[in-house]
Amino acid sequence: MNRRSLLLSAVLLFVLAACSPEKELLPATGSFSQAEPAPLPEDRFLTIAHRGASAYRPEHTLPAYILADEMGADYIELDLRMTKDGRLAVIHDQELQRITGGSGKVSDMSMDELKKVSAGVAFNEENPELAQASYEQLTIPELRDVLMRFGTSVNYYIELKDPPEGAGMEQAVISELEQYGITESSGQRQLPPVILQSFNKESLMRLHEMRPDIPLIQLYSFKENADLSSEELEQLRGYASGIGIPADSAHAGFIEKVKGRELDVHVFTVNEEQDIRRLIAIGADGVFTDRPDVSRRISLE
């Protein structure tokens, strides 16, 4: 065999080896983690302070989170939206009108611009019996503001709101949680230090790929009796630790079906004592509530 033939043979062998699936060294783009979803605590009904103790203080503000912690909430809930400059604002609505009385969208503003508007004026107007002049000086916090204030002294239940495709919101959230030591496991903790949730399945799957040790909750907005097929539940078990559903859609048969697949059920938003008792009776694992003092008291009975 001449030199040219040898060279061609070598090139051919190299190409065949490179194309062989058995020789693949890197995972394919979009590959999905095979790790089991992180477990949630058994036999523990969770009180999740919805936007803090938001029945009593302006939602998503440090005073609301401080009160929720004082009331014994198992988790403080944060909604996150990305600002124009890629920072993580703690706010539920895309539009500013309801919370601030102002106009504009979170995604069209920088974090510095958001911090110039009041997060407490609307609360004072709607709740004169709870109003305080100091609330007018409250501003929309950034995720790092909350993490710096509380550190590992509380547990966080965080929703990624409308995560923009390709904007890296998932990585930004994980990076900040890691920076402040929130994701570090500790044998002293009875509960996971952070739970992440979203209505966006793809976002949750990306989070599971990054940190399979963090429990994830798939949110649903059922308008009536909740229902998921066996196939849908089996899919969920690949990346989620549980689901979040509206209170009006929750019923015993569905909760039993979901928990039979080893998935937890958290229900939003529940403020009345009789409703919390009903959900405990039919097997719910926790509630999002504006009144964490009420839920906590009932859960300890």
From TrEMBL:
Residues 45-299 form the GP-PDE domain. Keywords: Hydrolase, Signal. The keyword Transmembrane does not apply. The keyword Hydrolase applies. GO terms for biological process: lipid metabolic process. GO terms for molecular function: glycerophosphodiester phosphodiesterase activity. It holds the Pfam family GDPD. Its EC number is 3.1.4.46. PROSITE patterns: GP_PDE, PROKAR_LIPOPROTEIN. Residues 1-20 form the signal peptide. This is Glycerophosphoryl diester phosphodiesterase. It comes from Bhargavaea cecembensis DSE10.
